[in-house]
Amino acid sequence: MAGESTAVGAEAARAALEASASITGGALSVSLKIDSPIVAGVALAAGAVVTLGAFYLRYRWKTENAIRNSLERMNAIGAADPEVINIEEGSIIVKLRCHTPQSVLQFVKDFKEKKVKRRLEEELKKIGFDKELEVTIVNGQEVFQREQELRSLLEPQEDVKVTVEEVSLGEYQSGKSSNKHR
Predict the structure, then answer these.
(1) Transmembrane stretches, by residue range (predicted)?
(2) Whole-prediction pTM value?
(3) Phi, psi values for residue 140, rounded to 5°
(4) In this predicted model, what pLDDT tens digit does every residue of 132-155 receive, in sequence order?
(5) Could you give the maximum distance between any two Cα atoms of the chain, in Å?
(6) Which of helix, strand or coil describes residue 94?
(7) Residues with Cβ < 8 Å from 9, sequence gap 6 or more?
(8) Residues 6+ apart with CB under 8 A from 12
(9) I want to staple 98 with a disulfide (CB 3.0 to 4.6 A). Which of 57, 59, 104, 146 is the partner?
Protein backbone atom coordinates (compact mmCIF):
# COMPACT_ATOMS: atom_id res chain seq x y z
CA MET A 1 0.00 0.00 0.00
CA ALA A 2 2.82 2.38 0.88
CA GLY A 3 4.49 1.66 -2.45
CA GLU A 4 1.26 2.50 -4.30
CA SER A 5 0.84 5.95 -2.72
CA THR A 6 4.50 6.77 -3.35
CA ALA A 7 4.24 5.66 -6.99
CA VAL A 8 1.04 7.65 -7.55
CA GLY A 9 2.61 10.74 -5.98
CA ALA A 10 5.78 10.36 -8.03
CA GLU A 11 3.74 9.95 -11.24
CA ALA A 12 1.69 13.08 -10.45
CA ALA A 13 4.84 15.08 -9.74
CA ARG A 14 6.46 13.84 -12.99
CA ALA A 15 3.32 14.81 -14.99
CA ALA A 16 3.32 18.29 -13.44
CA LEU A 17 7.02 18.71 -14.24
CA GLU A 18 6.50 17.66 -17.87
CA ALA A 19 3.56 20.06 -18.24
CA SER A 20 5.64 22.82 -16.68
CA ALA A 21 8.50 22.22 -19.09
CA SER A 22 6.20 22.35 -22.11
CA ILE A 23 4.61 25.64 -21.04
CA THR A 24 7.71 27.37 -19.71
CA GLY A 25 10.16 25.98 -22.25
CA GLY A 26 9.98 29.04 -24.50
CA ALA A 27 10.06 32.69 -23.62
CA LEU A 28 6.86 34.72 -23.78
CA SER A 29 6.82 37.80 -26.01
CA VAL A 30 4.55 40.64 -24.98
CA SER A 31 3.62 43.47 -27.37
CA LEU A 32 2.75 46.68 -25.53
CA LYS A 33 1.08 49.60 -27.28
CA ILE A 34 1.87 52.92 -25.60
CA ASP A 35 -0.07 55.96 -26.76
CA SER A 36 -1.20 59.35 -25.51
CA PRO A 37 -4.90 59.86 -26.07
CA ILE A 38 -5.79 63.35 -27.30
CA VAL A 39 -9.07 64.88 -26.26
CA ALA A 40 -10.56 66.70 -29.28
CA GLY A 41 -11.39 69.91 -27.37
CA VAL A 42 -7.91 70.12 -25.88
CA ALA A 43 -6.27 69.59 -29.25
CA LEU A 44 -8.26 72.39 -30.87
CA ALA A 45 -7.75 74.83 -28.00
CA ALA A 46 -4.05 74.18 -27.62
CA GLY A 47 -3.27 74.40 -31.30
CA ALA A 48 -0.04 72.41 -31.11
CA VAL A 49 -0.44 69.22 -29.12
CA VAL A 50 2.59 66.95 -29.00
CA THR A 51 1.68 63.28 -29.32
CA LEU A 52 3.84 60.55 -27.86
CA GLY A 53 4.67 59.38 -31.39
CA ALA A 54 5.96 62.84 -32.36
CA PHE A 55 7.86 63.13 -29.08
CA TYR A 56 9.46 59.73 -29.76
CA LEU A 57 10.58 60.80 -33.24
CA ARG A 58 12.20 63.95 -31.87
CA TYR A 59 13.76 62.41 -28.73
CA ARG A 60 14.19 58.82 -29.80
CA TRP A 61 17.19 57.88 -27.64
CA LYS A 62 15.81 59.50 -24.47
CA THR A 63 12.38 57.95 -25.03
CA GLU A 64 13.81 54.46 -25.59
CA ASN A 65 15.90 54.74 -22.42
CA ALA A 66 12.84 55.88 -20.45
CA ILE A 67 10.85 52.90 -21.76
CA ARG A 68 13.65 50.46 -20.90
CA ASN A 69 14.05 51.98 -17.42
CA SER A 70 10.35 51.57 -16.71
CA LEU A 71 9.85 48.05 -18.10
CA GLU A 72 13.07 46.09 -17.60
CA ARG A 73 13.94 44.46 -14.28
CA MET A 74 17.20 42.69 -13.47
CA ASN A 75 17.04 39.05 -12.40
CA ALA A 76 19.35 37.26 -9.96
CA ILE A 77 22.17 36.92 -12.52
CA GLY A 78 21.96 40.56 -13.63
CA ALA A 79 20.16 40.01 -16.95
CA ALA A 80 17.08 42.00 -17.95
CA ASP A 81 13.93 39.91 -17.39
CA PRO A 82 11.59 41.07 -18.82
CA GLU A 83 13.73 42.51 -21.59
CA VAL A 84 12.78 45.13 -24.19
CA ILE A 85 13.52 43.53 -27.57
CA ASN A 86 12.28 46.19 -29.99
CA ILE A 87 10.57 49.59 -30.03
CA GLU A 88 8.58 50.68 -33.09
CA GLU A 89 7.30 54.11 -34.18
CA GLY A 90 3.78 55.48 -34.44
CA SER A 91 1.88 54.68 -31.32
CA ILE A 92 4.91 53.22 -29.65
CA ILE A 93 4.91 49.42 -29.90
CA VAL A 94 7.29 47.74 -27.46
CA LYS A 95 8.30 44.10 -27.91
CA LEU A 96 9.04 42.76 -24.45
CA ARG A 97 10.36 39.27 -23.71
CA CYS A 98 9.75 37.54 -20.38
CA HIS A 99 12.41 34.84 -19.96
CA THR A 100 11.05 33.09 -16.85
CA PRO A 101 7.62 32.12 -15.50
CA GLN A 102 8.21 34.44 -12.55
CA SER A 103 8.80 37.45 -14.82
CA VAL A 104 5.61 36.65 -16.79
CA LEU A 105 3.57 36.51 -13.58
CA GLN A 106 5.17 39.66 -12.14
CA PHE A 107 4.73 41.65 -15.37
CA VAL A 108 1.04 40.69 -15.68
CA LYS A 109 0.47 41.52 -12.00
CA ASP A 110 2.15 44.92 -12.45
CA PHE A 111 0.15 45.56 -15.63
CA LYS A 112 -3.18 44.74 -13.95
CA GLU A 113 -2.30 46.95 -10.97
CA LYS A 114 -1.44 49.85 -13.37
CA LYS A 115 2.19 49.86 -12.16
CA VAL A 116 3.50 49.47 -15.73
CA LYS A 117 1.54 52.55 -16.85
CA ARG A 118 2.63 54.53 -13.78
CA ARG A 119 6.33 53.66 -14.27
CA LEU A 120 6.14 54.60 -17.96
CA GLU A 121 4.50 57.95 -17.12
CA GLU A 122 7.09 58.66 -14.41
CA GLU A 123 10.06 57.89 -16.67
CA LEU A 124 8.68 59.86 -19.63
CA LYS A 125 7.89 62.82 -17.36
CA LYS A 126 11.59 62.94 -16.39
CA ILE A 127 12.47 63.65 -20.04
CA GLY A 128 9.70 66.18 -20.70
CA PHE A 129 6.62 64.20 -21.80
CA ASP A 130 4.01 64.97 -19.15
CA LYS A 131 0.78 63.53 -20.54
CA GLU A 132 -1.40 60.61 -19.52
CA LEU A 133 -0.61 57.36 -21.32
CA GLU A 134 -2.83 54.61 -22.62
CA VAL A 135 -1.03 51.25 -22.31
CA THR A 136 -2.49 48.06 -23.78
CA ILE A 137 -1.19 44.56 -24.41
CA VAL A 138 -1.61 43.89 -28.14
CA ASN A 139 -1.39 40.10 -27.71
CA GLY A 140 -3.35 40.18 -24.45
CA GLN A 141 -5.29 36.96 -25.05
CA GLU A 142 -2.05 34.96 -25.39
CA VAL A 143 -0.40 36.69 -22.42
CA PHE A 144 -3.36 36.25 -20.05
CA GLN A 145 -3.83 32.62 -21.12
CA ARG A 146 -0.14 31.92 -20.38
CA GLU A 147 -0.51 33.64 -17.01
CA GLN A 148 -3.41 31.32 -16.09
CA GLU A 149 -1.47 28.22 -17.21
CA LEU A 150 1.55 29.24 -15.14
CA ARG A 151 -0.54 30.01 -12.07
CA SER A 152 -2.23 26.60 -12.23
CA LEU A 153 1.16 24.88 -12.51
CA LEU A 154 2.95 26.89 -9.84
CA GLU A 155 0.19 26.96 -7.21
CA PRO A 156 0.31 24.03 -4.75
CA GLN A 157 -1.87 21.09 -5.74
CA GLU A 158 -4.04 19.89 -2.85
CA ASP A 159 -4.89 16.50 -4.37
CA VAL A 160 -1.27 15.36 -4.79
CA LYS A 161 0.01 13.67 -1.65
CA VAL A 162 3.26 11.77 -1.32
CA THR A 163 3.89 9.73 1.81
CA VAL A 164 6.92 7.72 2.82
CA GLU A 165 6.20 5.13 5.47
CA GLU A 166 9.43 3.16 5.70
CA VAL A 167 13.03 4.12 5.10
CA SER A 168 15.78 1.52 5.12
CA LEU A 169 19.37 2.59 5.65
CA GLY A 170 20.87 -0.83 4.97
CA GLU A 171 23.91 -1.82 7.00
CA TYR A 172 24.84 1.71 8.03
CA GLN A 173 25.36 2.06 11.78
CA SER A 174 25.27 5.49 13.32
CA GLY A 175 28.63 6.63 14.67
CA LYS A 176 30.53 3.41 13.83
CA SER A 177 32.94 2.82 11.03
CA SER A 178 33.91 -0.56 9.64
CA ASN A 179 37.35 0.60 8.57
CA LYS A 180 39.70 -2.34 9.30
CA HIS A 181 42.75 -0.81 7.60
CA ARG A 182 43.84 1.73 10.19
Answers:
(1) 38-59
(2) 0.65
(3) -60, -40
(4) 999 999 999 999 999 999 998 887
(5) 98
(6) strand
(7) 160, 161, 162, 163
(8) 157, 160
(9) 104
